[in-house]
Amino acid sequence: MAFQLKQSTSVDFATIPLVARAFRKQGKPVVLVALSTGLHAGHIRLLDAARRIPGSVVIASHEGIELTGVDAQVNISDEQLWPHGRHVRLDTGLWHEDIEPELARLIALILHIGPSDLVVGEKDWELLLALQKTVRDLHIPIKIHSVPVVRNADGVALSLSTPGDIAIAAALTAGVFVADQGTQAVLAAAHSVLAAANIEVEYLDVVGQRLIVGAIVDGARYIDNAGLA
């Protein structure tokens, strides 16, 4: 097929691996950005990061979004990835099993398309850690680039604006504020904010130099994290 860079060319599921392989043979880094059904400031930040990789050919996968400013885009659904159903489950060994379907989707995308690089956001820190571990354990030859969360002045991610997000952002801010006092002080400060907001905490932990939280607000699950260093 005729293919021009920077034209956001729509490519079908069967053809996208051929496009990626052709550009990798030319020595170009083929960078995958996996998006979902919405497009917000955080996604734009991911695409910008992908384009900044020298010589990159940017492929964006999505579900029903029309994009501009990428080299190729492909609309991919679970039905295309697993036409006969998914029979393999990945053991993340992390905090919450809800990340497993998204992890499996990312791994399937990587194996199908064959990119050299993957750009992902740090909003879901659990997913990022699980992805790094899976790529390492399965010896998948890909470089993962993580992009910090884009936030408003109040600490809430630009893609979010619900009361649950605001309370969780406040808890993270409280924890970061006392980071020099040690892990227990960080957890206590964050927990006090969540308790005051009557938020059901699934987990609250410090992993390395990052405070992570998962919580239930009005029946919906929220996750976020903040660096402590």
TrEMBL record:
Descriptive protein name: Panthothenate synthetase
Keyword Ligase belongs to the record: yes
Keywords: Ligase
GO MF annotation terms: pantoate-beta-alanine ligase activity
One Pfam family this sequence matches: Pantoate_ligase
EC main group: ligase
Matches recorded under InterPro entries: Pantoate_ligase (IPR003721), Rossmann-like_a/b/a_fold (IPR014729)
EC number from the UniProt entry: 6.3.2.1
Keyword Mitochondrion: no
GO terms (BP aspect): pantothenate biosynthetic process
